[in-house]
User: Fold this.
Amino acid sequence: MIKGLKRLEYRGYDSAGVALVTEAGELQVYKTKGKVSNLEEYCADKDVTGTVGIAHTRWATHGEPSSVNAHPHYSQSHNLAMIHNGIIENYAELKRKLIERGVEFKSDTDTEVLVQLIEYIQSKKNLSLLEAVRIALYQVIGAYAIALLDKRNPNQIIAARKQSPLVVGIGEDEFFLGSDASPIIEYTDKVVYLEDGDIAVLQPGKELKVVDVFNDRMNPEVKTVDIDLGQIEKGGYPHFMLKEIFEQPECLKNCMRGRINTGADHVTLSAVIDYRKELVNANRIIIVACGTSWHAALIGKQMIENLCRISVEVEYASEFRYRNPVVGPGDVVIAISQSGETADTLAAIRLAKSKGAFIYGICNAVGSSIPRATDTGSYIHVGPEIGVASTKAFTGQVTVLTMLALALGDAKGTIDREEYLKIVRGLAAIPEKMQEVLRLNERIEDLSRTFTYASNFIYLGRGFSYPVALEGALKLKEISYIHAEGYPAAEMKHGPIALIDSDMPVVVIATHNNLYEKVLSNIQEVKARKGRIIALVTKGDTTVSKIADEVIELPDTLECLEPLISTIPLQLMAYHIAVCKGKNVDQPRNLAKSVTVE
Assistant:
């Protein structure tokens, strides 16, 4: 279980705990604030015998990070112990009713409310644990993935999910549970992805039993997971983030494999072939996403509008779901999520689907909730991303969006053959050009040391480079905790220029494209106010290098493909600044890799 928790550390957490039924028949809970290593030390002299247990890393929602609020949580009698991902929205009402009935609470969490509710129902109605869980979940509003132990039935785990991921691994006379497959694949490649409303009974020596909240028996499909254990190891790199930055050339080859032919003159996406009518005849496209995926969507918008001549809107999934959007039959909604479990994006999909829109998913995690909820879509195939700050998933998403724009533009007849070939061939050449940029790593590392002093950064770009500026700023914020903002360069004079002084580093993406002269003017505006300029330029540029304080030269490529090249030095700069500041780059504070709560 400790090894499994370590495999899931990348998801972000603030406390960790285990519960197990010992050989003496006791239900023991051990938990601590902080890292899994703290829990490991705490358990060193404890009774950890037994063969049935549950373990959890908690990311605080209700109640501050502490050992008391850490999972697992006991029920009042200590007969039950439970772990939980998600949020119980009506926990306050349920808690009030339980307190009125004499139940005492130890923590501030919504999780303890659920385990107390299950025990109250079980004891009052003299039910089995499965029946009590089923009835309790019928009363719950919110999201959950739960696992329960009952010391009176020590050879059994009850698990259930709704809007939070849960995977059952099936071994030989043994079962495993995980938020994803990464802690399971070491022991078995046979898994069942539980669906919303599923309740599973795990008991060694018996078949997996799955029912819904109405107690109807389900027949889940057993799937084979194809993940190489080496993909979730650091492989000699000091951090997962650096490993994943350096993996990008190979990842994009995998992303394009089977989609761009060996002659690099044709793009094939099965979704565009299978659902040609729905995509070609779309009234408009709405892209919903969060965080880094939203930045990829902004690039996708420009690609699709340029090549397909169809209106594209980009929405934060969290905002889209809470208004009354004008969306319906004839609209295509593209949902982008690395994990495939992002709660806001899943909710946006459900809303769009209920209004008759056609849903296209772009995702990395095979078998996750978003691919199962969409009408069609494309995996980005970049392998497991462990670092919390997304790197290879971003370039994978941009690559898939570019291929989608090419395939759809070709199907619609809105792109001429010469431009089509130029972009396809340019895209096929990107991995090699990425390798060239990665050879600048040591230079960027040296440069980064001079900027660890900064408390603020501004990133500027125009056209396809504006979303890259946003993404560069986000990377720096996430892992170094330096305040950073991205702006369209032309917007500087409309307010942000007031921030510029000799202490303000300004990163400008000034590659040689149609807006080069405009960006040059924006650089002059910053320089006139003594801002320190770090410029990303096309190799051979002699103009910007005379003005900027620092210059990073990048290989030339098509303007629409520049984000795939220019984002890499920004990833490396954020990484090295954070390392110089002594930050935990793989697990930045307060962040979770897979945001399965609102």
